[in-house]
Amino acid sequence: MKLLHASLCLISLLLILPSIFAASSSEDFDFFYFVQQWPGSYCDTQRSCCFPTSGKPAADFGIHGLWPNYKDGTYPSNCDNTKPFDSSSISDLISSMQKSWPTLACPSGSGETFWEHEWEKHGTCSESVIDQYEYFQTALNLKQRTDLLGALTKAGINPDGKSYSIESIRDSIKESTGFTPWIQCNTDESGNSQLYQVYLCVARSGTGFIECPVFPRGKCGEEINFPSF
Ligand code: 5GP
Ligand code: 5GP
């Protein structure tokens, strides 16, 4: 009888254990989207934009965010409100962030509000792998390792307000980074579809790019504008 009781206890424990682990890893994720935005396309919409207090950003793609994602296309958000954004812990990264992760929202700001939003919504969901310092450092490293504008201009695709095939845009970025990007469009004031954001996928560890397990939804036209900035 005792033996039966002991085995029943063991079996129940074995049944319960996986759900305990599942609960503690509920903030886990499969990969990141590393998202960069073209400032010209953020600014020429109906909503317009404001330059950051540090001045007009370079005419280059800027970081929007590093977003943990699940391979079924869903994603976690706002995972830990006990870890607020702490700019003093990333003080040596701030000048690089001003250059590579500029804010274009109105009213003009230093960028802190944008970085705080990205950390709280997305960064806190990657804490099983990287802490706050590493989150921002990882994004900056990934930016340094991709030259989207260089890839495009090398293929004759320039921010000159002309239109280019989405295929040529995708191919030139694939050629340069080795990985297939996902292109997100928005529309300018006249309603033209234009190159807004470029998504690349990053391994869970944050160490390098991977082919995307899943692409976001949405569609651009076959030909899209590349506005100046
Ligand atoms: P939108 O609807 O403008 O594409 O996205 C609005 C916001 O939702 C994004 O800035 C981002 O914070 C979040 N978001 C949209 N799509 C994804 C996605 O596929 N993965 C993750 N992690 N966040 C997303
Ligand atoms: P997400 O779309 O990532 O959830 O939210 C972006 C938030 O950051 C919005 O509240 C938006 O107003 C703010 N934000 C500040 N600066 C920028 C910027 O340069 N680009 C984008 N896309 N959002 C910005």
From TrEMBL:
A single MF term (Gene Ontology) = ribonuclease T2 activity
Pfam families given for it? Ribonuclease_T2
Which residues does UniProt mark as catalytic?
64, 118, 122
Q: Which residues form the signal peptide?
A: 1-22
Keywords linked to the UniProt accession: Disulfide bond, Endonuclease, Hydrolase, Lyase, Nuclease, Signal
- Could you confirm whether the keyword Disulfide bond appears in this record? yes
Instruction: Report the InterPro entries cross-referenced here.
Output: Ribonuclease_T2_eukaryotic, RNase_T2-like, RNase_T2-like_sf, RNase_T2_His_AS_1, RNase_T2_His_AS_2
Q: Report which superkingdom the organism of origin falls in.
A: Eukaryota
Please provide, in alphabetical order, the Gene Ontology terms of the cellular component aspect for this entry: extracellular region
Gene3D superfamilies the record matches: Ribonuclease T2-like (3.90.730.10)
Q: Which GO terms describe its biological process?
A: RNA catabolic process
Give the matching PANTHER family: GENOME ASSEMBLY, CHROMOSOME: A06, RIBONUCLEASE T2
**Function noted in UniProt:** May remobilize phosphate, particularly when cells senesce or when phosphate becomes limiting.
Which family does the entry's similarity section mention?
Belongs to the RNase T2 family.
The name of this protein is: Uncharacterized protein
Organism ancestry: Eukaryota, Viridiplantae, Streptophyta, Embryophyta, Tracheophyta
